[in-house]
From TrEMBL:
<dbReference type="GO" id="GO:0070652">
    <property type="term" value="C:HAUS complex"/>
</dbReference>
<dbReference type="GO" id="GO:0051225">
    <property type="term" value="P:spindle assembly"/>
</dbReference>
<dbReference type="Pfam" id="PF14735">
    <property type="entry name" value="HAUS4"/>
</dbReference>
<keyword id="KW-0175">Coiled coil</keyword>
<feature type="coiled-coil region">
    <location>
        <begin position="201"/>
        <end position="228"/>
    </location>
</feature>
<dbReference type="GO" id="GO:0051011">
    <property type="term" value="F:microtubule minus-end binding"/>
</dbReference>
<dbReference type="InterPro" id="IPR029327">
    <property type="entry name" value="HAUS4"/>
</dbReference>
<protein>
    <recommendedName>
        <fullName>HAUS augmin-like complex subunit 4</fullName>
    </recommendedName>
</protein>
<dbReference type="GO" id="GO:0007098">
    <property type="term" value="P:centrosome cycle"/>
</dbReference>
Amino acid sequence: MSRSTSPDITAKNLSGQLSGNLPVYVSPDDITKHPLLSQLLEDLILRLTPTGVHKTTHTQLTQTTQAMMHARQKFLEAATLHRLTTDVLLNTTGNDGDQKVRRDMLEALTLSEVQDHLTLIGPAEDDQAKSTHQGNQHSPPATGKARVFGLNEEDLMLSLDVRVRREQSMRLAGALEVQLEKEWTKIAAFVDPFEFMSYDLDKVMAIVERLQSTKQKLTKEKNQLVHSTFQTDCLSEQVYRQLVEYSKVLHSLARKQRLSSYFSQHLASSLVNLNTHTLRLRCLQLEVLVATYTSQTVPALRSLEGHLTQRGKVAQQNLTRLNHAFASFSGLDSQYQELLHEYAKLQEDIAFAQTFTQV
């Protein structure tokens, strides 16, 4: 856009526009004295950047700069990975088998990097070298593949595949993960030192504290969930036992023809359904325990086993005490024993009636 097509643009405004887009200062007096030159400069700023570089050249420089930054980032990542891998493989701790595996993998790593550090001689270069040194009897013969020290690329890759197995690669990946967790600060400072130096230490520590508090909160909620699961299981067992006792009482009343057998049969079917749901709940609990297995699971199960063992001992002691109490009635008449049995049933009926009246 030239000044001739925009008569509203003053000399002062055009001076500011030209001075802002060109690496020189153009005064309003120069524009007034040389109108043709000002038009040429105004047309020039449409094709140049503020630094006086052509826009196409500026775009190419920007793209090249971005490509160099990307290449530098990739090089730093590769160098960091190489350093970590070398540190892990040179670790001398461990048994003889682990050290042998590390030596094999270190040799495989060296073989994989030969192409990056050595230039293999191609067939064309080999023919040229042979024609240049015709008098040299020790020159290597021309071959169809590039070789160095008598090895070509296929030999190197084949040796690499033979030396490294999948399980070794998985073990190396685990060791690298542990090494990354230990030296993440050094790696961050090495890969991007300017950004790392601009970090606020207080903010970084706040992030770490927040992560630790979140981890503690999740652990607490998980423990509460496990406790609630076991508590629900215990309460379900208690309800089931009470229903079984209630079913026995109803069945006894129905057998004595003091109550209809409908209630007993209905409760028996309900107990079967409840037992089925209890077993399903137990299966779900086992699936949850298997899915969320941690080091705290075994102590919890051992504690539960200890409680169950203690309750079993108490029940065995009560049974022994009851058998000892009834041992004195073993020699009595059978009719008298039947009378005692009826008396016990009558006591159960009285207890059930009292419970019903209290409810």
